[in-house]
Specification:
This protein has 260 residues and is mostly beta strands. The chain has no helices and 28 strands.
């Protein structure tokens, strides 16, 4: 009743449902202080790992498979201050991407002070989906050297937040993004930033994937963006900014897209 479980650990275990995506959560970490989740495999659950209010979490080498419509490999919400996800991955079974699936769904009123290191996704509609529609705190959310299908960061300004007042609200550094979602002719974005100020993207490579129409970075109503040392290959539109004041684009390279 309101108390946190201190130092719980889940390690070296696997979960498999007999029918793909029929519901259920393989692991739920709820109100846990400094928990550890490692060397865990989950197959065919609707959610592989659910994290709610787990400050100090360290999750590493967690593998989730079986993406279906609306599924989340990792569902992360609440206050997870100082949480680290390292070498965690979520993938579907085949190139048929599940509509609405997300490898990592990050949401809630408090989003920040979390680091994702060398995490990956494949055959998901979105690799990292940062849903800030009810977020009032966004700061120090770091994605470092991750390789994912696509990234979506949206809604913080509408929710009443002010990420320009917070240094380094979201930082995406290194790694690559290669989208596979969407039917032919449907816009597919490597990184989509909507109504969220102060996002930094540095040293990331963007590829076309199997989408017929795509953006490297598409930003809408998001001020104070910093885009540096990006490599954009084969997409239809390299970087598109709409209503994005006080933003900068520096040292980016474009290979066969339309550029800015």
């Amino acid at each position: 009743s309101g108390s946190y479980l201190f130092l719980p650990e889940v390690s070296g275990i696997g979960f498999q449902r007999s029918t793909t995506g029929t519901g259920g959560i393989a692991i739920e970490m709820l109100y846990a202080n400094t928990p550890t989740v490692s060397d865990v495999f989950s197959d065919a659950s609707l959610i592989g790992l659910s994290i709610v209010n787990a400050p100090g979490l360290y999750a590493f080498d967690v593998v989730v498979s079986a993406s279906i419509a609306g599924s989340s490999g990792f569902s992360i919400s609440g206050n997870n201050n100082s949480a680290i996800f390292e070498r965690c991955s979520s993938s579907g079974y085949n190139p048929t991407v599940a509509v609405g699936s997300a490898a990592f769904l990050i949401s809630g009123t408090y989003v920040g002070d979390m680091t994702f290191k060398t995490c990956s996704s494949s055959f998901n509609a979105i690799g990292f989906n940062v849903d800030c529609s009810i977020t009032t705190y966004l700061n120090n959310l770091i994605f470092d050297q991750c390789t994912v299908d696509a990234m979506n960061i949206a809604g913080y300004n509408i929710a009443g937040g002010n990420s320009l007042a917070d240094a380094n609200s979201v930082r995406i550094t290194g790694g690559w993004v290669n989208p596979v979602a969407g039917a032919l002719g449907t816009p597919t974005y490597c990184v989509l930033i909507q109504n969220t100020d102060g996002v930094e993207v540095d040293g990331v490579q963007f590829y076309k994937g199997n989408a017929s129409f795509s953006y490297g970075v598409n930003a809408l109503s998001s001020s104070g963006l910093t885009l540096t040392d990006l490599q954009v290959s084969g997409v239809t539109n390299g970087i598109s900014l709409t209503d994005c004041a006080f933003s900068s684009i520096t040292s980016c390279r474009f290979n066969n897209p339309s550029g800015l």
